[in-house]
Specification:
Pfam family, one: CYTH
Number of helices: 3
Helix content: 25-40%
Protein name: CYTH domain-containing protein
Radius of gyration: 16 Å
Structural class: alpha+beta
InterPro entries: Adenylyl_cyclase_CyaB, CYTH-like_dom_sf, CYTH_domain
Distance between the termini: 21 Å
Shape: globular
Length: about 140
Amino acid sequence: METVECLRVRQRGDSAEITYKPPSNTVTHSVSGVIAKQENNVQLADTRQAGAANALLAAVGMVELVRVEKARSTYRHPDCDSTAVSIDLVAGVGAFVETEILASDSDGAAAHLEDIEQTIGISANPIVRLPYRDLVMRAQTAV
């Protein structure tokens, strides 16, 4: 929880994958607040494999912390495939906009993300720095 490390089984549409996100630290967070982490993904054969993946994780002692259910719509500019704007509807929590860029230069990425957020009119909105996992857990304990 403290390091924002994540191991998850994700299902969406007709695909499933296991994803590991390493712990957050001063290297993964830039001065501008951009989070840059290398995700490790293992694509599963199909959604039926998600159950097997969850069983495997349980067999090695992992415990499901929380289940995040979200609907995501993602938009990309036709001339800039490395940039995405996603609208997430997170069950029990609310709606969020995520801007993402696939880049190795986090400083250049930060400026590009700021431009996008200004262009689509969300730059004045507050930035939510907690992962959906934490937001869902908070919403569940508030009930």
